[in-house]
Amino acid sequence: MDIHGTSALVTGAGSGLGEATARHLATLGAQVAVLDRSGDRADAVAREIGGQSLVADVADETEMSAAFDRLAATQGSPRIVANCAGIGTAGRIVGRDGPLSLADFEKVIRVNLTGTFNVMRLAAAAMQSLPALEDDERGVIINTASVAAFEGQIGQAAYSASKGGIVAMTLPAAREFSRFGIRVNVIAPGIFLTPLLYTLPEEAQAALAADIPFPHRLGDPSEFARTVQFCAETAYFNGETIRLDGAVRLKPK
């Protein structure tokens, strides 16, 4: 798919991997919709890249439906959707204070897994009515998992479950949408230098980087964004999960 001039939607685009993706797609000539729960952050990024700002909770059916309707009315339904919204709450299944709150577990599943599914289903429904491009392609959906989907650490049961679910639904979704010319792929990033890690001391960041075989550093969000570009541009890449992690394998804790 040629990204230039194409309508794109990036969720969680007010910061971190989503922001980097929105900025990169804009440099490639895409018409980018910047969606985030924070209106201030979405507005700021959208202004800087000449995109459109959308405010919505990815797991809210009504809010996301309204966002897709607004996008369709302004720049057209997106052919590229990058799902980057997510949270990373940690907690042991049974900690010092007893079992993990079920509400805490459900919150992580709601945002990461249900939110991804909500955006994916609405995106695929909108893409079906778009005219076909080369190879009869109509769109591509790129979801974000994590290496924790495969090697979840102690305290990551909820997070790993949410990200593992994203990986697991990739192939059935890609198979289902194939008759409409819609591809579905997943990127599973390792340890990236996002706003959360910026708050850690330099020695803590160095300790995290030391466990990464090569290169010995944290991932740069721009590398994630370029991987989104690959997923969008490469028509034969479908139903797959890319680990983007410097060959790291997470330890138990």
TrEMBL record:
- What keywords sit in the KW lines? Oxidoreductase
| Pfam families, per the entry | adh_short
Q: Which GO terms describe its molecular function?
A: oxidoreductase activity
InterPro entries, sorted: NAD(P)-bd_dom_sf, Sc_DH/Rdtase_CS, SDR_fam
Q: Which family does it belong to?
A: Belongs to the short-chain dehydrogenases/reductases (SDR) family.
Task: Indicate what this protein is called per its UniProt record.
Answer: 3-hydroxy-2-methylbutyryl-CoA dehydrogenase
Native species: Marivita geojedonensis
